[in-house]
């Protein structure tokens, strides 16, 4: 499969971004290629297009399947497995958020909950306890907020994001009204 320079640039960029998303470069490239492909691709096509070994493709596909980002499709009369993204761009983004939360935020929340159960033994621990409680509250708030965002339809979420700074201006206006009693 030959990629246009534009698509190749995007796929290579996905590889570079992979480590920031929680995967390695090869896995990022595989995901980028699958997202850009109009049709499902076999492991051989993926390997040839990206110049990577069949083993790397296989490991990459398994990792992407563990993230629930890739699904397998079978074509009648063909024994090969073909791979494609497991949903829309919004669904894929939600799965990445969910998986990152499971792998990164949930263990931190668990550790903080355990640490906060014990009373501090001295002033140093009391200060650390207070800071851990602040971190815990922040992560709990973010976790609840992202869960609510994930339940919103892509259309409503797009509208919400487009409101952006408008929402902040409304909140600032509300604060001014509360402080002064008027909207001047």
From TrEMBL:
Any one GO molecular function term: DNA binding
InterPro entries on file: ArsR-like_HTH, HTH-GbsR_regulator, HTH_MarR-typ, MJ1563, WH-like_DNA-bd_sf, WH_DNA-bd_sf
Keyword DNA-binding applies: yes
Superkingdom in the source lineage: Bacteria
Coiled coil: none
TM segment ranges: none
Keywords of this entry: DNA-binding, Transcription, Transcription regulation
Family matches, as Pfam families: MarR_2
Residues of the HTH marR-type domain: 29-80
Family membership noted in the UniProt record: Belongs to the GbsR family.
Protein name: HTH-type transcriptional regulator
Protein species of origin: Thalassotalea marina
């Amino acid at each position: 499969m030959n990629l246009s320079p534009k698509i190749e640039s995007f796929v290579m960029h996905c590889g570079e971004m992979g480590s920031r998303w929680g995967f390695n470069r090869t896995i990022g490239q595989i995901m980028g290629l699958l997202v850009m492909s109009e049709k499902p691709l076999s492991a051989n096509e993926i390997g040839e297009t990206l110049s990577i070994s069949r083993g790397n493709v296989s490991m990459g596909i398994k990792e992407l399947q563990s993230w629930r980002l890739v699904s397998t499709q079978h074509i009648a009369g063909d024994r090969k497995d073909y791979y494609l993204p497991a949903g829309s761009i919004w669904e894929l983004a939600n799965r990445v958020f969910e998986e990152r939360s499971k792998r990164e935020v949930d263990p931190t929340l668990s550790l903080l909950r355990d640490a906060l159960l014990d009373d501090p033994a001295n002033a140093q621990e009391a200060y650390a306890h207070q800071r851990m409680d602040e971190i815990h509250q922040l992560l709990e708030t973010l976790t609840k907020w992202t869960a609510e965002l994930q339940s919103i339809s892509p259309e409503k979420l797009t509208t919400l994001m487009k409101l952006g700074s408008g929402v902040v201006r409304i909140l600032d206006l509300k604060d001014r009204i509360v402080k002064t009693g008027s909207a001047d």
